[in-house]
Amino acid sequence: MKLAGKTAVITGGTSGIGLATARLFLAEGARVAITGRSQISLDETAAALGRDILALRADMTDFDMTEHAAATVAETFGGLDILFANAGVTGRTPLGKTSPEEFDRILRTNVTGVFFTIQAFDPYLRDAASVLLAASTVGLTGNAYYSAYAASKAGVRAMGRVLASELAGRRIRVNTITPGAVRTPIWSTVAPTPEAFAPIERRIVSAIPLERFAEPEDVARLALFLASDDASNITGAEFVVDGGLTGAPAGAPVYRV
Predict the structure, then answer these.
(1) How far is residue 99's CA from residue 103's CA, in Å, rounded to a whole number?
(2) For the segment 116-130, what is each residue's pLDDT rounded down to a tens digit?
(3) What total of structural domains would you count in the chain?
(4) Is there a contact between 227 and 82 (Cβ–Cβ < 8 Å)?
């Protein structure tokens, strides 16, 4: 098992990528702590995942709560080997129709919250630990109406490189995972039913060379590699999981001759 004897923390661990990663890390021998904002979801997830799981309520925008969660994880499990700052929020922020409060909500969660999450857990990270940050291809592709979200994820990408330099003296590796379209519950905010989601999926898939959404497990397997000793000499890097959307866009169905 790749993570035997290691302890991992995954923020936003009750659904989607975070849940898939928690499940895989447990299967690979890690003790796992997950955080989330809903106590009901945390309780249900912990019951489903079973042993070696610690579920803690923490809102990334409440820095005192995050520090308390970090201390609780350390008290329960000891030093930490893996931190996956996965939690985040999205939202449309069209020009001329966006309030300062909505713009700030996204940046405060996805940028400020990520930084202070890492700062809260930093005292408990063992030397040679692995820190993973969750970005998004929206920070690369210029999706209309998503200025705040795109800016936040571009900020995470930059932050990852800075922190890789800052933590190199402790041999702590910091890498960024940048998913494209992933089949997670986040799509329910724009398409609450399968019927509503189908045309959105067809449109997006037409621009993806591999012609499919990623599954949460696709991203989780990359997280496992980066968290494990297999990636012991990789830091300050970014790994894109988008079916070729950004790396080989001309291969997408919409552009094929």
Answers:
(1) 6
(2) 999 999 999 999 999
(3) 1
(4) yes
Q: Is 255 a catalytic residue?
A: no
As given in the structure block, the two tokens for residue 39 are: 């106590």
Report which DSSP code applies to 228: S
CA gap 120, 125 in Å, rounded: 10
Q: Which of 124, 145, 146, 149 is catalytic?
A: 149
206/49 Cα distance (integer angstroms): 35
Domain of 83, CATH number, reads 3.40.50.720
Q: What is the pLDDT of residue 194?
A: 83
In-domain check, residue 208: no
Chain-centroid distance, C-alpha 65: 19
Structure-token match 């923490």, residue found: 58
Q: What range defines the domain where residue 222 resides?
A: 7-184+217-246
Q: Which ranges in 88-215 belong to alpha helices (H)?
A: 100-107, 113-121, 138-141, 147-166, 194-205
Q: Is residue 256 part of a domain?
A: no
